[in-house]
Amino acid sequence: MRKPDAPAKTDGTKTNSTNGGGSRLRKGLWSPEEDEKLMNYMLGNGQGCWSEVARNAGLQRCGKSCRLRWINYLRPGLKRGAFSLQEEELIIHLHSILGNRWSQIAARLPGRTDNEIKNFWNSTIKKRLKNSSSSSSSFFLNSGDGSSVNEPQIQAMYMDSSSSSSSSSMHGLPVGNHHDLVPLPKDGLENYYYLHETRVGTENGYSGGGQGMVTEGGGIMGRGGELVLVPPLVSTNLIADDNVDVNEIQSDKAVGGGLFWEGEKVRVGEWEWELGGLMKDVSFPFLDFQVE
DNA sequence: AACAGGGGCAACCGCTATCGG
DNA sequence: GCCGATAGCGGTTGCCCCTGT
């Protein structure tokens, strides 16, 4: 494997005469000189039209290639190196919600690129999940109450996000040590909202044990007993308050500035749904795994 | 020491969305 | 509304290095 910070090789670079109307454009790995040119240009001029960037920076690259190089490698603030356990868990969580929308996952992992996450998922996590399916070893997620989710359940969720549309155990509100990712109806902005809940059934319904949630508009995500602020990716006027009191996550109300549990209703700002109705709607792709 | 296979990463490709004329 | 250019995204490929034999 290539070392994380190994310099890019300069050989193997190809040219392409089919693009750009006859001018031969370089392809393949970027040389340090090219990196320097692009970096200097971007730092001095900022991002503009990428075809202009390529031309003005004196690079024989297509704009698309420049953009990719900048975003995935040269852009300031990028983290290099291995993913931390926290990042890994967050990726797994987010993938369960967002599927292969790498750019949206990357937007919630500062310093990481969609390409990096995609590679990490395809090379590492996917394989680990695959391997873990044949053994009962230790790939798990911690739940808020200290229990863990076993891997076959996770695998079922993550190996193919498009098929994670059924639930054998969801016949109503989350009861017991569930981890439930409950998609709510689309709003007018074509955004999905999700509740991520771990709850312990109580006499009065669903008080206590709340683990937080993930929303498209940003929010708080419970993970392993800690709370993770998930930065908003898409602006929304439905969930707009970033000043969330973490303590409120432990309560049933006022989570994320406008999303409420109220008995058997879910309210997001002015929107409200009957949970029972939601649960009856078999078209909803429930993501559900149960703690053993 | 030499070789083959696999893993991991960077970059490319093709498609779709968006924007401006 | 149409069309071309550009941006952005996700899937795929190719290359290099490591590891096992």
TrEMBL record:
Domain of life: Eukaryota
CDD domains xref list: SANT (cd00167)
Keyword terms, alphabetized: Activator, DNA-binding, Nucleus, Repeat, Transcription, Transcription regulation
Region (Disordered): 1-29
KW Cytoplasm (keyword) present: no
Subcellular location: Nucleus
Keyword Protein transport applies: no
Domain Myb-like span(s) in chain numbering: 22-74, 75-125
Cellular compartments per GO CC: nucleus
Gene Ontology MF: a single term: DNA binding
GO biological process terms, semicolon-separated: positive regulation of DNA-templated transcription
Chain intervals with Basic and acidic residues compositional bias: 1-12
Domain named HTH myb-type: residues: 22-74, 75-129
Record InterPro entries: Homeodomain-like_sf, Myb_dom, Plant_SW-associated_TFs, SANT/Myb
Protein name: Myb-like DNA-binding domain containing protein
Organism: Musa troglodytarum (fe'i banana)
Higher taxonomy: Eukaryota, Viridiplantae, Streptophyta, Embryophyta, Tracheophyta
